[in-house]
Amino acid sequence: MTEQNFPATPGLMAKALKEGIFAGVLALGMFLLYVGIKTDQNINNELIWYPRWGLLAIFVLVAGIGRFLIVGFVAPHINQRRLAKAKAGIPEVSEDKGFFRKHFLKIALVALVLYPPVVMSIYGTQGSLKFVDNFGIQILIYVMLAWGLNVVVGLAGLLDLGYVAFYAVGAYSYALLSDLFGLSFWVLLPIAGILAAFWGIILGFPVLRLRGDYLAIVTLAFGEIIRLVLINWTDVTHGTAGISGVAKASIFGIWSFDVGASNNFAKSFGLPMSSAYYKIFLFYVILALCMLTAYVTLRLRRMPIGRAWEALREDEIACRSLGINTVMTKLTAFAIGAMFGGFAGSFFAARQGFVSPESFVFLESAVILAIVVLGGMGSLTGIAIAAIAMVGGTELLREMEFLKLIFGPDFTPELYRMLLFGLAMIAVMLFKPRGFVGSREPTAFLKERKAVSGSFTKEGHG
Amino acid sequence: MANPNAAAQPLLKVSGVETFYGNIRALAGVDIEVYNGEIVSLIGANGAGKSTLMMTICGSPQARNGSVVFDGTDITKMPTHLIARRRIAQSPEGRRIFPRMTVLENLQMGAGLDKLKYFNEDVEKMFTLFPRLKERQAQRGGTLSGGEQQMLSIARALMARPKLLLLDEPSLGLAPLIVKQIFEAIKVLNEKEGLTVFLVEQNAFAALKLSHRAYVMVNGKVTMSGSGKELLANPEVRAAYLEGGRH
Fold it and tell me: Which family does it belong to (chain B) (predicted)?
């Protein structure tokens, strides 16, 4: 059987049909109760239900036809392309990337810098709020958190499920210290980072001997301990009520964003009062913090400590036999990762104006870790893309009105937000098991960087 | 010629070492000496304690009794990484290369002690010694074949410019031709550079042929020692480790 007549094979069509019907039946079974029947309560508080056969039929058809198309047409096509590629011997690392791919990072940075003014000119000052705040700042906070966690998980290979604890330490450091001592954001930002790093070391010590699952459990517990302390130490943290009225950040003390202040930014420039200016300022602050994180991470990767992290991820015993102090290496990974979490935390407090233990639940740790894994552990670009997809995606899913066209006007897309989100994550892990950017940029070169062509990378026969 | 520099101080002196795993005594008072410029091998059956001795020299696990003296310093209770910094390089059992890092990065990790001062120079040397690694320099360690990984493991250890090279089972799971290549490389290093090598091997015939001196270990104790040739000729050794084997 040659691959030319592969898609037209009668056996394949039969198989696709069979799988399609099977998927339809499966979907019918799964969605019969969830979608096919709608339950409600009437005015007497009695349970009433009515069927939605039309909607159920659409679900089943989407599943069945989708499976049929994938098995019958998409999969053979992909296989054929893979086969052709393998035959042609196309190297995996090609040297001639397009202009866009070559300058991707520069283009992305310029786009980010131009983002607020462009959005403002399109949607007006007030209309830009949603885009700058929900889509801009929100995503960038997660980019920063994920890049910070990447140092611990992606580079040093220490699975940390309690990363949100350092985020909390940073946020509360800023909220409490600015409240008690009236210190400004710019003074407290480094202090919050140092305090978080300190907590990173405190976490690091007891878990030095742990790896993998055991480490994950202890870090998970650590995250919960911090949260419970925040809830129960009411004298200092006000418990679940949280701390409100956290001071805003200022432009290095020159202009303030407090409405009453004489040096208010909008007043000084004779602009109409709006909270949008503060958000745009915060956008640039978090962008700068992200750039700092990326710069430090990239530099560290090329330094002995960064190489030691990566080697530690691969093999701890080998590291020790090469004279690497694994204790120091682990502690610095925890401390530096935690420090970035602390920066992000104090930024979060300044942006939100309110901190409470609610914001630092385990789900946050899980989301940040998911971003790191989805992006491809260790790859900054991949992680940024994953953060945009995860955080921006969930925001976008709030606005899925178009689905009403398929499923009818009664369909409430918001309810399916998390379901679609989960499906998307599974899909990514199935098709890109190493994450969006699974390849690692090597850091050692003899004289020049060179991409190795496929003919060199055949499996050895020693 | 049992001991070429009997008058000199040994580079490595293991005396009366006892090592325990929990309550189980794996080494029951081992004495071994390695002198500068020698190839010394340690042969023995599975579970005799060969690898444990190797690891005890590196401080993981540490010896409960007895002492390990290297180059005049007692290293018995030193942490592993500090022992490594005294230029005892190890190619551990199972190779333990860094699978997701490239060959060149693996070598870079080995050269960390000198902050990469001699990196380019030493890499060239390794590529001359193991030309195979040059072809594969940009490949991930994990994609190499077993023999290439062993070469990489030895090369990585050599990048540290060691005074003493510890090799744990370099022939494990390799085709005879590759074993020959690797043993040839060890011989060249010893003859040309005066590298001191302490070798643990199951492949007794190849090891004894290569070594100046050798020790035989049984149940955590050294039961015999002598020059490689002597032990090769010894009927007891022949019966226990050589006959019935491939050679």
Answer: Belongs to the ABC transporter superfamily.
Q: Are residues A270 and A326 in the same domain?
A: yes
Closest Cα in chain A, distance from residue B201 (Å): 19
Contact of A334 with A204, CB cutoff 8 Å: yes
Residue B1 falls inside a structural domain: no
Residues B205 and B132 in one domain: no
The count of structural domains within chain B is 2
Residue B152 lies in a domain: yes
**Last residue in a domain, options B127, B162, B197:** B162
d(CA B46, nearest CA chain A) in Å:
22
Q: CB of B245 within 8 A of CB of B204?
A: yes
Peptide bond into A433 cis (omega under 30): no
- pLDDT confidence band for A280 (50 / 70 / 90): confident
Does residue A456 sit within a domain? no
Asked whether the beta carbons of residue A318 and residue B97 sit closer than 8 angstroms, the reply is yes
What is the least distance, in Å, from the CA of B134 to any CA of chain A?
11
Domains identified in chain A, total number: 2
Q: Could you tell me if B167 and B247 lie in one domain? A: yes
Mean pLDDT of A277-293: 90
The answer to whether B193 touches B125, Cβ cutoff 8 Å, is: no
- A95 in B contact zone (CB under 8 Å): no
ipTM value for the complex = 0.86
Same domain, yes or no, for B83 and B168? yes
SS3 B45: coil
Q: Report the CATH number at residue A248.
A: 1.10.3470
Residues of A with CB below 8 A from B96's CB?
315, 317-318, 321
Q: Is A39 a member of any domain?
A: yes
pLDDT band per the 50, 70, 90 thresholds, residue A89:
low
Same domain, B82 and B182: yes
**What is the count of residue pairs from A and B with beta carbons less than 8 Å apart?**
112
User: How confident is residue A413, by pLDDT bands cut at 50, 70 and 90?
Assistant: low
| Mean pLDDT value across chain A | 82
Kindly state whether A321 is in contact with chain B, defined as any CB-CB distance less than 8 angstroms.
yes
Residue A449 has pLDDT above 70, yes or no: no
CA distance A380 to A388: 12
Q: Which domain holds residue B45?
A: 7-87+163-247
Q: What is the extent of the structural domain holding A81?
A: 10-88
Under an 8 A CB cutoff, do A446 and B146 touch?
no
Q: Would you tell me how many other CB atoms lie within 10 Å of the CB of residue A39?
A: 9
Strand, coil or helix: what is A11?
Answer: helix
pLDDT the model gives residue B7: 59
Instruction: Indicate if B74 and B191 belong to the same structural domain.
Output: yes
What number is the average pLDDT over the span B151-164?
Answer: 92
DSSP A379: -
CA distance A139 to chain B (A): 30
- Name the token pair of B123: 């890499």
Statement to judge: residues B243 and B125 lie in one domain: no
Q: Give the whole-angstrom CA distance, residue A45 versus residue A129.
A: 41
Nearest Cα to B159, choosing from B80, B105, B211? B105
Residue B2: the pLDDT is 47
Asked if the structure places residue B173 within a domain, the reply is yes
- Is the backbone peptide bond immediately before B61 cis, with ω within 30 degrees of 0? yes
